[in-house]
Amino acid sequence: MSGLEVRELEAFLVLAEELHFGRAGQRLYVSQSRVSQLLRSLESRVGATLVDRTSRRVRLTALGERFLADLGPAYEALHRAVDDVRAAARGIGASLRVGFQGTLDGHLTDALTLFGDRYPDCVVDLVEIPLSDPFGALRRREVDTAVVLLPVREPDFVVGPVFSRHHHTLAVSARHPFSARESVSAEELAECRVIGVHSDAPEYWRAVHAPTRTPTGRPVPSGPAVHTLQEGLSLVAADRGTMLLCRATAAHHSHRSSVAFVPVTGLPVSELGLVRHRHRTPPQARAFAQAVVDTLPDPDHRSRPERFGDASVGEAEPLAG
């Protein structure tokens, strides 16, 4: 254990999930070469090769598989110990940190109210997640669960329930030629500079919320890249580009006289999903998922069991401290 580096262990665990040095680096916010360096250092400490890597694939060795099986539970136990001490230091028997992007959805507000009524002793902290980094806060354990824009294709995450389905609008400057239109088509995005999201977000996620091509394949000019929704709206107001937003977010910002929100036809609907980590979910997060389900507006949907990870979200239960 002498000189053991937690960062090396984290690099191994993430690489074991991704089996790709580039994607592991993105999740760890380091370069691909840094992941390789951390792995080599860990292998030097243990005196054996843990990962076979070739130009075509990455896979764990037999010893690497054994190390993963032993390390995973120990690593999670270490983090739980830190979380428990942090909670005790704050004098909180039960707390929940909920991440959200942009603005609080009306349905989310209802769910928070219901959760508060059911568990008045649970302290709820709301944490805004940057638009450019939808998954980082959950991976860094800064939140227990997060409400993010779909799609989510992260192998270490589970999504559910899904809610707040809305059609898209195009935010444009009040001076933009589209500002007086009743609607625009997805194909007409080829005539706009669409504001993008910085590269902290996965490419597949950015491609949905700032598409580079129309449904028929016409190129969409790229506008500036932003970290937050407010940055994007400020650039729209300055006529530096346009931005795709769901109608609920557009309605929340409809007071802006310098920005017009024009409905877009021909795009899939925007959806929000409640996301949690596949291997660590406190009971408070599961109870909050149930509150989200119970406040869904569709009675038929409420009557169907929601799958939140590997267990159905059940009735309200006492929360563990």
From TrEMBL:
InterPro entries membership: LysR_HTH_N, LysR_subst-bd, WH-like_DNA-bd_sf, WH_DNA-bd_sf
Highest taxon of the lineage: Bacteria
Domain HTH lysR-type: 4-61
GO CC terms, sorted: protein-DNA complex
Keyword entries, A-Z: DNA-binding, Transcription, Transcription regulation
The keyword Nucleotide-binding appears for this protein: no
Parts of the chain that traverse the membrane: none
Region of interest: Disordered: 295-321
Pfam families to which the protein is assigned, alphabetical: HTH_1 (PF00126), LysR_substrate (PF03466)
An example Gene Ontology molecular-function term: DNA binding
Basic and acidic residues bias: start-end ranges: 298-309
UniProt key word Transferase: no
Family: Belongs to the LysR transcriptional regulatory family.
Name of the molecule in the record: DNA-binding transcriptional LysR family regulator
Organism annotation: Saccharothrix tamanrassetensis
